[in-house]
Amino acid sequence: MDSVTLFCTAGLIAGGLYWFICVLGPAERKGKRASDLSGGSISAEKVKENYNQYWSFFRKPKELETSKNVPDFVDTFYNLVTDIYEWGWGQSFHFSPHIPGKSDKDATRIHEEMAVDLINVKPGQKILDAGCGVGGPMRAIAAHSKAKVVGITINEYQVKRAKLHNKKAGLDSLCDVVCGNFLEMPFDDNTFDGAYSIEATCHAPKLEEVYAEIFRVMKPGSLYVSYEWVTTEKYREGDEEHVEVIQGIERGDALPGLRRYSDIAETAKKVGFEILQEKDLAKPPAKPWWNRLKMGRLAYWRNHVVVVVLSAIGIAPKGTVDVHDMLFKTADYLTRGGETGIFTPMHMILCRKPSEKASE
């Protein structure tokens, strides 16, 4: 091969890699490039070890039944997946119904804005985002409502990412993030004018504990809305396929155990909430929320090649390939859960903390 041909071939390969990684690589919100994938707060050399540690929880299921172990379990998970989520999905780590004629980005934003519209907050009021991730919903909600949003996440790396995004979006005056456990929040009683959680409380070992803590920090008379991950009335515990799908979702998404749809309102009432509305937002006429997962299969294989290459040449930490593969398999379980109707990630419940007069 002469020098000109060799030079041209090398140029094509370099150009192809740049296009594959830097052009195709960024997430839809342009928040993370493939070449920047990391293990969150975990050092690069320990990503593989922590991935194995994550799976060790499932070899000892009793450990997932105690509150003291779950925060570490969830924190490890989000150290492993946050960069991949941002890169391959966006800054909002949740699902939304497909809306014909709308982009995934717009459908996500509309789903988030609906949450804050339901709790009737006014500009300048302070509301809680319980389980805020890197703050995608927080920014959409603050921009839409002009309320001040305080988010809490167990993961220190997500706090750094959220604050960076808030500043870039020019919303750091409306959005704040703290690192903490939403089972023991560092807020005084009766602090917030409203609260919401979007596909987050599913990580709590006991729903009653997180609902009670949210209830505590809300002002009397204020509203709380949550989008919950649950099994539906179609789920059958005796059906082996159903069990396989639900366990696949639990293991791939750091869940101590999915709850039944019928448990949600009962738990909210137990801690003192009044139930104003309850609805599965995934049911018709809503369009399938899992369409985005099915349509993203080609993108997954493209991304997986990128991850394999970056891991092989030492840019992405060892273990990143395993994490990415786990998430793809989980996406299949989620799709099957949606198609069979046995699982929904958007069982909505709207609650009110009774006013002081009503509670007297």
From TrEMBL:
Could you state a single Gene Ontology molecular function term?
24-methylenesterol C-methyltransferase activity
Q: Which residues cross the membrane?
A: 6-27
InterPro entries to which the protein is assigned, alphabetical: Methyltransf_11, MeTrfase_SMT, SAM-dependent_MTases_sf, Sterol_MeTrfase_C
Q: What Pfam families is this protein classified in?
A: Methyltransf_11, Sterol_MT_C
**What keywords appear on the UniProt entry?**
Lipid biosynthesis, Lipid metabolism, Membrane, Methyltransferase, S-adenosyl-L-methionine, Steroid biosynthesis, Steroid metabolism, Sterol biosynthesis, Sterol metabolism, Transferase, Transmembrane, Transmembrane helix
The UniProt entry, under Gene3D superfamilies, shows: Vaccinia Virus protein VP39 (3.40.50.150)
Reaction(s) catalysed (UniProt annotation): 24-methylidenelophenol + S-adenosyl-L-methionine = (Z)-24-ethylidenelophenol + S-adenosyl-L-homocysteine + H(+)
The record's family statement is: Belongs to the class I-like SAM-binding methyltransferase superfamily. Erg6/SMT family.
Q: PANTHER family of this UniProt entry?
A: 24-METHYLENESTEROL C-METHYLTRANSFERASE 3, PTHR44742
Its job: Catalyzes the methyl transfer from S-adenosyl-methionine to the methylene group of 24-methylene lophenol to form 24-ethylidene lophenol.
Name the UniProt record assigns to this protein: Methyltransferase
The opening ranks of the lineage are: Eukaryota, Viridiplantae, Streptophyta, Embryophyta, Tracheophyta
